[in-house]
Specification:
CATH class of the largest domain in chain A: Alpha Beta
Number of domains of chain A: 2
Largest sheet of chain A: 7 strands, mixed
Strand content of chain A: 5-15%
Order of helices and strands of chain A: HEEEHHHEHEHEHEHEEEHHHEEHEEEHH
Distance between the termini of chain A: 45 Å
CATH topology of the largest domain in chain A: Aspartate Aminotransferase, domain 2
CATH superfamily of the largest domain in chain A: Type I PLP-dependent aspartate aminotransferase-like (Major domain)
Oligomer: homodimer
Strand order of the largest sheet of chain A: 4-10-9-8-7-5-6
Number of helices of chain A: 14
Number of strands of chain A: 15
Shape of chain A: globular
Largest interface: A-B, 83 and 83 residues
Structural class of chain A: alpha/beta
């Protein structure tokens, strides 16, 4: 696509273009940060309002049964599972990604009692690493990305990786890494926070053991939406959660004294979940209704490819380095650009109505969520980036920021 | 109060009567189950709608700073703290009660490394007991209620009690039990789920170490609202959480590899919290604006005393046994009645528009939340109970239910 008109033409024949109407996007803003916080689906306010006024306000405590509150973690888990290649009753919506990481790392270490090493990569998302550091009887071993496959040996209890790197957007080959872990007798735990809803994931097909992910990025569940976890059916009955709360009990309303885990995935619940947060996530998941993840992937790659091509054409290559792999099978749905003045540049870009984000020390991230991002948005975003790059303003701001910090 | 008119007169001069307008209660329903799920505050829909449409929908990712999302756990924690006798920066709103119990029991055991026993009482709320059972290196010891003070000895790491018993409504003397724990070198952990917002609590004044509680009962934060935890200032810097997630990191947005706890209470955060759930809790807490907890306690005792007096007068004493202590200093804000056909009786009562609840095997619970419960509600509730007791209908239903179960 060599002109803005080409982009408009691509949008005109894009089969996903009508999905943009499912979202309430602010006027005049190009939102390229759905990899951090998905925008508001149009359906959310009404669904939430009904949950507040009719379910909570009118039907009160009876709603746990009447409106199915009690089974929401499972019903939403199954809907979410359909987006990540998980058959029914293997995904449950609960707690935060961090809490779910704790549960599953603990479970993995219990299933491999002769081993204590959690293997991860240096650039993994901090909370994954922090949670592993908080586990007693576990030792976190970090490898470089390149060295990771070779670091999987028979000392490893569980390999914990984020499928799409939050900084670079690089994508792991889930199938081969999972196989390498299993070949070494280790378990695998995938963090799908940056892949669920962004690209096809095939948990069952890749024979994955465990997965977690958050609901507020590509799944559009709202700020801090409930997270999810996956446990392969074959492992569920041998998994115990250290967070043995009452909602995961076999018979929570018997109010017995002794803990007994519920059958299957439900045992991974802990306390009482926020019903309002679950309803908002329900609306977020509904934004994927009728959409094939393969179509999302096709458009995602086309958008990000266009962005990289235009960025290379329009931005000075000595100052702007694309750190995201160009090869399609090696990247997710975001593109990251390294730049010495990344913070100030992103601030200037946001002021110009293009919202991406900054990750310390020198990265700008741009997410391309195919449900609401247009090809013309990509064109316009690069246009504005080129204008700022030519301008001195952002350098000034950077100067002022440094002054303010010291 | 001997007549319905007396009750109406009491309502007319009740200083808390205007607070009822702060809630959206369904027509024709007497809601005596606020001890399980608080009703919808009138302010909630608008506050939530603003959070959804303006904060999330319009301002998107920028709201973490612009609308103070990032500090909501602390700002709401301080507001909640004011209701339970906790000075600033000792309460934080986060996760569920169950998850918070896990964090604090773990912390207590770490602070008492030579001891491993968690002492609790047989009738404690199940999730408290289940969480203690899930902790490695801990041993849960249960005592009868009567025997508990004597069971606190130097083998105990932490005494874990719910201040108001969820079944009987019995109230522990927080000050004396806390002192007994400290005298034995043990720590104390109070679960305030059935007391926060229901009666004055004086955590600081009683020299309490740890507390947890939920936001969806007397605090009216919505179904499954975020929970809270309290750590006395003097202990905060020596407490580590096993759930060392990124929101509790000293510098979460530096994205460093090594976990380092934030100073103070903020270290007890784990993952990203649901902002929508926090906003709903904010509205729930606002329903206490300008209200003195002592006034709440006075009315609570008057309501529950009236209920017990009328129940004794109007219900056959051989079939209905009040299990809640009559003595004011020994009860919270609910009254429980034992009855052989409690389940069917409560079903019949709910059909008649009086909502309480049932706890297996034979208890009916009635909560008296002074912000929205009127004296005439108590009169009318007992009136309907008396009518059902005289009627055979509920016995029939009970018969049918048993038939259905077998």
């Amino acid at each position: 696509m060599d002109t803005r008109e080409d982009c408009l033409a691509a949008d005109a024949c894009d089969p996903l273009a009508p999905c943009r109407e499912r979202f309430s996007l602010p006027e005049g803003v190009i939102y390229l940060d759905g990899n951090s916080l998905g925008p508001l689906p149009r359906a959310t306010p009404a669904l939430l309002n009904r949950a507040v006024k009719e379910e909570w306000g009118r039907d009160l405590i009876g709603s746990w049964n009447k409106h199915g509150w009690i089974s929401l973690p499972e019903t939403l888990g199954d809907r979410l599972g359909a987006l990540i290649g998980a058959g029914p009753r293997q995904v449950i919506v609960t707690d935060s990604t961090s809490v779910n990481l704790y549960k599953l790392l603990h479970a993995a270490l219990t299933l491999r009692p002769q081993r204590r090493i959690v293997l991860s990569e240096e650039g993994n998302f901090p909370t994954d690493l922090y949670i592993a550091q908080g586990l007693e009887n576990a030792e976190l071993r970090l490898s470089s990305r390149a060295g990771l496959p070779a670091a999987i040996d028979e000392s490893i209890a569980v390999v914990m990786l984020t499928q799409v790197d939050y900084r670079t957007g690089a994508l792991w080959d889930m199938k081969s890494i999972t196989k390498a872990a299993h070949d070494a007798g280790a378990l695998i735990l995938w963090d799908l926070s940056h892949s669920a809803g962004a690209l096809p994931v095939d948990l069952d097909g890749c024979d994955v053991d465990f997965a977690v992910g958050c609901g507020y990025k590509y799944l559009n569940g709202g700020p801090g939406a409930p997270a999810f976890l996956y446990i392969a059916k074959r492992l569920q009955e041998s998994v115990r959660t250290p967070l043995s709360g009452w909602m995961g009990h076999a018979a929570p309303f018997d109010f017995g004294t002794a803990y007994a885990p519920a059958p299957g995935i439900r045992r991974m619940l802990c306390g009482t979940p926020s019903v309002l947060a679950l309803r908002a996530l329900e609306a977020g998941l509904a934004s994927f209704a009728g959409i094939d993840m393969a179509a999302i992937r096709r458009k995602s790659l086309a958008l990000s490819d266009l962005f990289m091509t235009l960025a290379e054409q329009r931005l000075p290559g000595d100052a702007f380095e694309i750190v995201t792999p160009r090869e399609e099978r090696r990247r997710g749905s975001q593109v990251s650009i390294r730049h010495g003045g990344a913070y100030a540049f992103m601030q200037a870009l946001i002021e110009d109505g293009v919202i991406g984000d900054f990750r310390s020390p020198d990265l700008m991230r741009f997410g391309f969520a195919p449900l609401y991002t247009r090809f013309v948005d990509v064109w316009d975003a690069v246009e504005r980036m080129a204008a700022i790059a030519e301008d001195e303003r952002w350098r000034q701001k950077r100067y002022h920021r440094r002054q303010a910090v010291t």
